[in-house]
Structure formats: structure tokens, C-alpha cells
């Protein structure tokens, strides 16, 4: 089934088998990144366009690096300085980009569903790099990959996701992926930042951060998405930190070997205390490193079959080679 997709739009519509296939492929690319020359020719001859209609540091750099590590050509687009500022539509922008011979489009957009719209209208493979409050699938994948590398499994783990759940596309992708792979997910945060009927996502809603933290193997802390909030959803940042901030004191309720995650950018001293962000349980920078390998896996699985010829044997990760020619994540037309 993974071989019948052309796009990665979210984790909601992926099966557990597809998720595992991506995670396994990412592991082989993670090994590539530790080589003296961390580059393979898997996407030689292909061109990827990175369209970022919203600000990004990690995701944009990580995709560009992943594309370069796979020997693809890359072009980058940011709203400022583009003809979008003159009123050009998303569809016209994308059509013009595709007319230049682009094989893969990575898009971040403030509107939920923008990547789906492009996927329907472009022959190029489309990867969602974050759409509104909907999904951020490669962030979800890199979070799950980091947990799996640290714990050796996902099934049976207790994962606490803390913070602004309502506005978080990272939370949604994590919840879909983790629950499909058998983790028990508990969420906590201000009632004003909880989506209605959130239990239908298959999670437990804790009454407090302390309750969510109890016995957790993993604590994933979310940024307050100030840019997506209409009106004030909590009294003050100081009050938020007092009631919902993850401190080392609160962390004592989790398992002794708990891992602490944050997708970035962090509001230090608000949702996460300084000593937790930089402490012994933190794997926050490991998430960033793993993100490159995960994005290499997604790019490879979606477009490896379009690349020019088979890559040299010595440069191909074994498991990636096995999936070559039969991968990917959204129905190809
Ligand atoms: N995690 C994440 O999406 O970070 P950026 O906004 O910097 O890409």
C-alpha cells in the first residue's frame, strides 16, 4: 500500500505498517548521516521546491539539507519577496513552479488543507511541512522516531503531551502516529486550549499537568501558539508557567528515565523551564538531528522511483534499497 501514494499530507491516513516502513527507512538514513561523507545519490536528477508561506527555522533547513544529502536539486520560496505579495494565488504560484520541472513540493502554509489542494492539482509529489492547525506529519514522524530510537519500541509507552493542544498541528500528528503504533497518550493543558471532543482522537485528557506526568515514559511539551490565538486564552505568561509549565519538580512524577521533547521554537520559562530544556532528560536537539534522516526517508519513499537509475550499491541504505521502486505515501495518479 505504501507503494501507491504520491504525497505525504498527514499521519491520520497512514497505516501502522506505513509508519513503521518510514521509521525503518529513516534509521538507515540516520546511519548515512554519521558517515564521513553523509550523502547518497538516491534522488539524483530530481528537483524539490520548498514553499514556505509561514516562518520556519528547523523544518525548512532540515528539508533542504535532506534534499541535498539525497543529491536532489533544491529551490526555495518564501512569501516575502515573491509574487504572492502582489496577490498571486497559491494555485498559480504552484503551477508556475511545476512548469519549471519540479518533482517534489514541500509546503508550509497558514491554511489547513493547503497541501491537500496542491496535491490534487499538481503531478509533483507534495509533502506537508505544516498546514494551519491541522498536521505537521514530518515533525510527528521525527518525534516518534526519536522515541523509538531511545526506547526501542512505541507500543505500551505512556506519552504525555502538554500545552496548547488546540492550535498544535504537532500534537495532532503525534497523536495519530503514536496511537496507531500502540502508545497510550495523555494530554494536558488549559481548558481554553483543548479542542472540543478531543477524546475522539483516542487520548486521555488529564485534569492537570501533574496528573499527565504520572509514570510517563515521554513528555512532549508544546509551544504556546500565540500567532494562532484569537483573544487571550490565559491570564498571563507568568500564570501559564505556574500552572502548565513543565519544571524539574513536576518531572519527578514521570519515570526516572523519562525523555523530554519539544518541537521548537521554545518559550523558555513559559511552557518549559530552563533546566528542563537543557537537562539530562532532554532530547530536543536529538529530535532536530533525527529530523533530517526522517525527511530523507519520506523524500526517498515518495520519489526514489523517479530518480535516474539505481544508486550505487555501496551508497544505498539496505532497507531503503529494499523499498526502492515500491514506496510512498499518498495515491499516485
Ligand atoms: N518544529 C518546527 O516546525 O519548527 P520550525 O517552525 O522552526 O520549522
UniProtKB/TrEMBL annotation:
Pathway: Pyrimidine metabolism; UMP biosynthesis via de novo pathway; (S)-dihydroorotate from bicarbonate: step 2/3. The keyword Transferase applies. Carbamoyl phosphate binds at residues 58-59, 108, 136, 139, 264-265. GO terms for molecular function: amino acid binding; aspartate carbamoyltransferase activity. Its EC number is 2.1.3.2. It catalyses: carbamoyl phosphate + L-aspartate = N-carbamoyl-L-aspartate + phosphate + H(+). Keywords: Pyrimidine biosynthesis, Transferase. Pfam families: OTCace, OTCace_N. L-aspartate binds at residues 86, 169, 223. Residues 6-149 form the Aspartate/ornithine carbamoyltransferase carbamoyl-P binding domain. Residues 321-333 have a biased composition (Basic and acidic residues). The keyword Transferase applies. GO terms for cellular component: cytosol. GO terms for biological process: 'de novo' pyrimidine nucleobase biosynthetic process; 'de novo' UMP biosynthetic process; amino acid metabolic process. It is an enzyme of class 2 (transferase). Residues 156-302 form the Aspartate/ornithine carbamoyltransferase Asp/Orn-binding domain. Residues 308-333 are annotated as: Disordered. Catalyzes the condensation of carbamoyl phosphate and aspartate to form carbamoyl aspartate and inorganic phosphate, the committed step in the de novo pyrimidine nucleotide biosynthesis pathway. HAMAP family: Asp_carb_tr. Belongs to the aspartate/ornithine carbamoyltransferase superfamily. ATCase family. Heterododecamer (2C3:3R2) of six catalytic PyrB chains organized as two trimers (C3), and six regulatory PyrI chains organized as three dimers (R2). This is Aspartate carbamoyltransferase. It comes from Eiseniibacteriota bacterium. The lineage of its organism: Bacteria, Candidatus Eiseniibacteriota.
Amino acid at each position: 500500500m505504501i507503494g501507491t501514494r504520491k504525497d505525504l499530507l498527514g499521519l491520520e491516513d497512514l497505516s501502522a505498517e506505513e509508519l513503521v516502513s518510514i521509521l525503518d527507512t529513516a534509521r538507515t538514513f540516520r546511519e548515512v548521516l554519521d558517515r564521513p561523507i553523509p550523502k547518497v545519490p538516491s534522488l539524483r536528477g530530481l528537483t524539490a521546491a520548498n514553499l514556505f508561506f509561514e516562518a520556519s527555522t528547523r523544518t525548512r533547513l532540515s528539508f533542504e539539507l535532506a534534499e541535498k544529502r539525497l543529491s536532489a536539486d533544491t529551490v526555495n520560496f518564501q512569501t516575502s519577496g515573491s509574487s504572492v505579495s502582489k496577490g498571486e494565488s497559491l494555485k498559480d504560484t504552484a503551477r508556475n513552479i511545476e512548469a519549471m520541472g519540479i518533482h517534489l513540493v514541500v509546503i508550509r502554509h497558514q491554511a489547513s488543507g493547503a497541501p491537500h489542494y496542491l496535491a490534487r492539482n499538481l503531478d509533483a509529489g507534495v509533502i506537508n511541512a505544516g498546514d494551519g492547525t491541522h498536521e505537521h506529519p514530518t515533525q510527528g514522524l521525527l518525534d516518534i522516531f526519536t522515541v523509538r530510537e531511545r526506547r526501542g519500541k512505541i507500543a505500551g509507552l505512556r506519552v504525555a503531551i502538554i500545552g496548547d493542544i488546540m492550535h498544535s498541528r504537532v500534537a495532532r500528528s503525534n497523536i495519530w502516529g503514536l496511537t496507531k503504533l500502540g502508545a497510550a497518550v495523555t494530554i494536558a493543558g488549559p481548558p481554553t486550549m483543548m479542542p472540543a471532543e478531543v477524546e475522539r482522537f483516542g487520548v486521555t485528557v488529564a485534569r492537570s499537568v501533574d496528573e499527565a506526568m504520572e509514570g510517563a515514559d515521554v513528555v512532549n511539551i508544546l509551544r504556546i501558539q500565540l500567532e494562532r490565538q484569537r483573544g487571550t486564552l490565559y491570564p498571563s505568561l507568568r500564570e501559564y508557567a505556574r500552572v502548565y509549565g513543565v519544571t524539574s519538580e513536576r518531572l519527578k512524577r514521570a519515570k526516572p528515565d523519562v525523555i523530554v521533547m519539544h518541537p521548537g521554537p521554545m518559550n523558555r520559562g513559559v511552557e518549559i523551564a530552563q533546566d528542563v530544556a537543557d537537562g539530562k532528560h532532554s532530547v530536543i536537539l536529538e529530535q532536530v538531528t533525527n529530523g533530517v534522516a526522517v525527511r530523507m526517508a519520506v523524500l526517498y519513499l515518495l520519489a526514489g522511483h523517479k530518480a535516474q537509475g539505481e544508486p550505487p550499491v555501496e551508497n544505498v541504505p539496505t532497507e531503503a534499497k529494499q523499498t526502492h521502486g515500491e514506496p510512498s505515501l499518498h495515491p499516485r495518479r
